[in-house]
Amino acid sequence: MFWRLLWKLLRGSSGRLIVAILALVSGAMVISALLNLEFDIERKLTQEFRTLGANLVISPGHDAQMPGAAPAVLMKESEALTAIQNLKDPAVVAAVPFLYIVERAENTPVVVAGTQTGDLPKLEPAWRIEGEWTSPHDDAMTCLVGRNVARQFQLKPGSPLHLTYLDKNAQVTVVGIVDAGGPEDNQIFMQLNEVQSMAGVQGQIGLMQLSVRGTSRIISDYSARLATELPGFEVRPIRQVTEAEGDLLNRIRLLIVSMVLLILALTALCVLATMAALAMERRQDVGLMKALGGSIARIVALFMAEVGVLGAAGGFIGAILGIELSRWMGQRVFGTAISTRWEIFPLTIALMVAVALAGALPLRLLGKVKPAVIFRGE
Amino acid sequence: MARLVQVQGLRKEFGNVRALAGVSFCVEAGEWIAIMGPSGSGKTTLINILGGLDTPTSGQAIVDAVDVGRLDESGLTRFRAQKIGFIFQQFHLVPYLTALENVMLAQYFHSTTDEREAREALERVGLGDRIEHLPGKLSGGEQQRVAVARALINHPKLILADEPTGNLDEANEETVIQLFHELHREGHTILMVTHAPSIGRLADRRIEFSHGKLVQVPASLRPESV
B91 — contact with chain A (CB < 8 Å)? Predict the structure, then answer.
């Protein structure tokens, strides 16, 4: 009889209850979308931040030796690579060595970075390239030039470029123009072994830049393990990137939690208003139920169950819509769909049931209805 | 016959308004008592107190050895469910429940529901073919018969009827009164409020109210005489 009564109560007040369920569905939809976004935001944000380039740098330690006439403090490339390979961490997206020297082009000093240019797209996915990335397997000596360098020397893909370093000369072909939006626009990127050969520092590099996937804590952990593997080196996260990531993540989470709480409160208020009106309509029924011997607990339980069913239904429908909404938001904000977290469903339903029960406070007051007063028409 | 109802010095005040001013009488089990009097004389207040819907300001209202005035909220709820069957002038059926469900509602609050028994109760009042109808689809007389079936379903000790024919046309009034006759023959104890002298005359006894006081109590109804 309980379920029969419940069904009849739901049908009997369908007009008013549609308003309540619309509020619950709307609230649940936005809340589940935000929660789904919140659960996936760390992964998405991490992916986004990886496009900003390296977030970890290995450089020579303070007590490193200057090898002969080397232009700067250097370190052995093989030691750094061995340490990275030993850790075998799948979070490492790219590990790219760099050796910087200042050469001359048309008698003008210009910074040349020797690197594995084939790995640059993984390290710096946000760079825009006009032309091609230099292939390490090319027979010809090729280079990438920053856009400022290209403008200064009027270079374009396919242009020849003559470089000199002390008494050595190199004839290279430009294969791509780099637009990085930073100091890289003023540099030339050549194969590492060519630059090492010109500088006379075979096997030596100035630093190694790494792109490591994960939160700032994961990056710090990896950095600490790498530092243990490389005691003579300095291993440090690029704090501006990792801290900005953590800070942004915290801000977004705070924003999402605040919005969820606000929406919960607004939904509860909407349900409250509807239920207050419903409570007035139900006074007669409650008076009769009490006259027939219905206990307060039994009558209120019936109405609370009705509200609970509304909350659960609203939460379920809203969660389905919210998941779709979060996918759409993910597509708009991050360019890819947000992954569906199935725990959103029970969480949203539980929240909506709680909100519906909180909003049903006026129905609880029906317990105070006096049948004699109701029958007198007061 | 055993005494079922004993009212002694019953008073009820609503603020400055005195609805009952020291009422005393008693009712034997199986009696049909008509309570009569003008509007505002305290008839419905008496019914409400005897049915546990209201509490007295002072005095005693004892029904089946239970002093209604001493019961707390949960005690009154149990009392209403177990001992009283109400029939109201306005029928007071739940509009979104069928005739059958309205009867079963009383069962639900009493103990457990028994659909077969509820169907039989409706068949007994001549509504076997209207069982699945909503109150809005029933005539006034039919609604009141549903209310009678509902009042009887839990086999109450006392049936309290507050002007049960007040909203009915003559034909339906006759049908409902016939039902009360049958209930009386079966030994039910009935206290019925009515304005109609013709219905009042059908009862075993009449007690008349005026300004919250009994103005005419047959000697056999006086507590001291029993």
Answer: no
Confidence of residue A248 (pLDDT cuts 50, 70, 90): confident
Helix H, strand E, coil C: the string for A31-68 is HHHHHHHHHHHHHHHHHHHHCCCCCEEEEECCCCCCCC
A and B: number of Cβ contacts within 8 A = 73
Give this complex's ipTM. 0.85
Q: How far apart are CA A255 and CA A327, in angstroms?
A: 19
Q: How does pLDDT run across A128-158, given as a tens digit for each residue? A: 899 888 665 556 688 999 999 999 999 999 8
Indicate the helix (H) or strand (E) that contains B42.
none
Q: Which residues in chain B have their CB less than 8 angstroms from residue A302's CB?
A: none
Radius of gyration from C-alpha coordinates of chain A: 33
Q: State the pTM of this model.
A: 0.65
Q: Is the pLDDT of residue A1 over 70?
A: yes
| Count of other CB atoms within 10 angstroms of residue B14 | 11
Give dist(CA B79, CA B83) in Å, integer: 6
pLDDT at B111 over 80: yes
Contacts of B109 in chain A (CB under 8 A): 289, 292-295, 298
Residue B92: its H or E element? none
What is d(CA B154, CA B129) in angstroms, rounded to the nearest whole number? 22
3-state SS assignment for residue B54? coil
In the CATH scheme, what is the homologous superfamily, with its name and number, of domain B29-55+71-208?
P-loop containing nucleotide triphosphate hydrolases (3.40.50.300)
Calculate how close chain A gets to B45, using CA atoms only, in Å: 9
Cβ distance B94 to A298 less than 8 Å, yes or no, reads no
Q: How far apart are CA A156 and CA A340, in angstroms?
A: 46
Contact B109 A12 (CB under 8 A): no
Whole-number mean pLDDT of chain A?
Answer: 84
